[in-house]
Amino acid sequence: MVMFETTLHCNMKCGYCAIWQNQQPETRAVRERVFRRMDEAADFGVFAWSFSGGEPLMNPNVPDYIEYAARKGFFTSMPTNGLALKKYAAACAKLDQLEVSIDTLDREKFARRRGIDGLPTILAALDYLLGRYEHHTIQINAAVDLDNLDDLPALASFCTERGLLLHTEAVHNVVRTTWRTEDVELARADLDRVAAGLAALRETFRCVRFYSDYYNFYRNDGFTKQFPCRSASHLVNMRPDGSIQFPCAFVHVHRGAPDMTLREIYESPDVRRIISESPAMWDFCKGCKIGCPYEVSAYRNSPLLAVRSAIDFLHLH
């Protein structure tokens, strides 16, 4: 899977994320460079391409990237805060999985959590897309803590009425090389309360996507030597400039140059060494609980987890 951070800029100010506090100038790859990366990824055997950020739709080339990735046959996905969803609705409808971040339908609480009064704009754009375009899976991503746990039944009802999925993941810290977020992780008792609430929610609403294994992983302090991160070997972490970052999208000890092909990068001695060292973990890996590296690591570390995740997925379809 490729996780392409199309930009590290964002137009929201979420209280549990600090990416918007570090809006430095960035170099973005020209369109043709990204298209070549997609060609390389298809040749390399990549199955899925995720457009990430920052807020992906702040990169105006993303609609063209979505169309090209679809033509290459990738399974495509993209999380977005939805503020520009109406403008780019036609392109977003072509994604295999569109993910719109909404934690609550309470407008005042949304504005407090997200730092901007954008909920009416996002909901109107979502209904615009649903009413005008054929689409694949649309998923609402809810970052959950005790502040919005009681708001989720209303959000699940909203998803049920519109045929959407509701993905629930506990709020966690995201640490990057050059800056730190506020500590927002849940204490074990609070996490258990959230997990119990989500399990009960899933019993009522079929649309709820809830992986109990992830919450056990979170509760057990995230990545450890017994459950190492496999991001370096199983996620192609591509930066806005087209470089490939190792071991993960959030912290790097090495970057494959933008002008090197994926095959050249992954066959290089430096990258082979990093991949071989990654199960032993670096200090910045310890305690990491980020969802995307967890998913690929779970499939690699435990076939049983892969089977259970597949069952969870089939439950929703």
What's the layout of helices and strands?
Layout: E1 2-5, H1 31-44, E2 48-52, H2 62-72, E3 75-80, H3 89-92, E4 97-101, H4 107-114, H5 119-132, E5 137-144, H6 152-162, E6 165-170, H7 188-204, E7 208-209, H8 212-219, H9 231-234, E8 236-238, E9 244-247, E10 252-256, H10 262-267, H11 269-277, H12 291-301, H13 303-315
Parallel strand pairs: 1-2, 1-8, 2-3, 3-4, 4-5, 5-6, 6-7
Antiparallel strand pairs: 9-10
Helix pairs in contact: 1-2, 7-8, 12-13
Q: How would you describe what is shown here?
A:
This protein is α/β, with parallel strands linked by helices and 317 residues long. The protein has a single domain, classed as Aldolase class I (TIM Barrel, Alpha-Beta Barrel), CATH 3.20.20.70. Helix content is 41%, strand content 15%. The strands form two sheets. The protein has an eight-stranded parallel β-sheet with strand order 7-6-5-4-3-2-1-8. It has a two-stranded antiparallel ribbon with strand order 9-10. It is globular. It starts with a strand and ends with a helix. The model has no long low-confidence stretch (mean pLDDT 91).
On the 0 to 100 scale, the average pLDDT is: 91
Give me the secondary-structure category: alpha/beta
General form:
globular
Strand order of the largest sheet: 7-6-5-4-3-2-1-8
The count of strands amounts to: 10
Question: End-to-end span in angstroms?
Answer: 22 Å
CATH class: Alpha Beta
Radius of gyration: 19 Å
User: How many separate domains?
Assistant: 1
H/E element sequence: EHEHEHEHHEHEHEHHEEEHHHH
> What's the CATH architecture?
Alpha-Beta Barrel
Stated plainly, the CATH topology is called: TIM Barrel
Mind describing the biggest β-sheet?
A: 8 strands, parallel
CATH homologous superfamily designation: Aldolase class I
Assign a percent range to the helix content: 40-55%
The number of helices is 13
